[in-house]
Amino acid sequence: MDNNVKLRSMIFIAILSVSLLLLGGCSKEVPQKHEEPKTLLAYVGANLKDPVSDLVATYEKKTGVKVELTFNNSGTLMNQIDTTKKGDIYMPGGISFVEKAKQKGIIDQVLGPIAYHTPVIITPKGNPGQVSGIEDLAKEGVKLVIPDKDATAIGRTAYKIFNKTGKSAEIENNIIANLESPAKVLAVIIMGQGNAGIVEYSNTFKDKEKIEVIPIDPKVNEVEQIPVASLVYSTNKELAADFMQYMKENGPAVFEKYGFKTK
User: Fold this and answer.
1) pTM strictly above 0.90
2) What is the pLDDT of residue 28?
3) Residue 231 in contact with residue 81, Cβ under 8 Å?
4) What is the mean pLDDT of the chain?
5) Quick one: average pLDDT of 73-93?
6) What phi and psi, each to the nearest 5 degrees, are found at residue 85?
7) At 66, is the secondary structure helix, strand, or coil?
8) Which UniProt keywords apply (predicted)?
9) Which of 68, 105, 178, 197 is positioned for an S-S bond with 145, CB 3.0–4.6 A?
């Protein structure tokens, strides 16, 4: 055989061998599986939206966990959980809703308080109704606006405060509207459609120049804890517990930034 022909044959065999080796190697590669990001579903009281959204953004960035947030008044959220039987976290505006949820058998664990709901009286600028304290809400001519007692933690708390004054009937006679959130009470008072309202202290944080804020006597005021709870329906209890611990450790500083009392 000619030497050139022999050389060409050897080169061809070498190239063919390398190609077969490469093909064999490729056939052994296993496609990478892309795992779906871990997700938590959290039901959060509407009045807690700003601090919780802030905390969740940081938590997601730190852990890579996606936290889906559903905001509404605490009572509506509890009914939603009880109906759908889904979710991992329940964070209402007050401990009383967690206690009620416990009775329904939907709560697993509870941590907190993360912060406190502190009721205050608000009036339009200039205080046209001349309200100086909680008992003045019983005066003739007062037009009182409060959050709904069945839907919101602060509304439920307001009635407890009224009962302590001994003038509950008179105060309740002056209620002209029960609204679905403290934020709506604030908006109505700013517009002058009532001359007194009950909200949470943090609701006044951004609009102090538009209203008068009147503290409630500590002897009758009802300051309520804001907890974070895990649900019995959680499919990732370890992750839910991690999120709760994060809220307990980091929540107070962030809640304080948004005007909530934390002590």
Assistant:
1) no
2) 47
3) yes
4) 89
5) 95
6) 55, 45
7) strand
8) Metal-binding, Molybdenum, Signal
9) 197
- Amino acid in the structure at residue 235: T
Do residues 147 and 93 touch, judged by C-beta distance below 8 A? no
Given the candidates 3.40.50.720, 3.40.190.10, 3.40.1280.10, 3.30.1490.270, the CATH classification of the domain at 39-115+225-257 is 3.40.190.10
Mean pLDDT, residues 16-28: 49
Query: pLDDT band at 27, cuts 50/70/90?
Result: very low
pLDDT at 143 over 60: yes
pLDDT score at 32: 52
Where in the chain are the domains? Answer: 39-115+225-257, 119-215
The second-level CATH assignment, the architecture, of 119-215 is 3-Layer(aba) Sandwich (3.40)
Q: What is the rounded distance in angstroms from the CA atom of residue 256 to the CA atom of residue 222?
A: 19
User: Which single residue is written with the structure tokens 């509404």?
Assistant: 72
The answer to whether 51 touches 257, Cβ cutoff 8 Å, is yes
Dump the DSSP string for 112-164. Answer: EEEEEE-EEEEEETT-TT---SGGGGGSTT--EEEE-TTT-HHHHHHHHHHHH
- Find out whether 182 and 199 touch, Cβ atoms under 8 Å: yes
Tens of pLDDT, residues 180-216: 999 999 999 999 999 999 999 999 988 989 999 999 9
Q: Which among 122, 255, 247, 101 has a CA at the least distance from the CA of 186?
A: 122
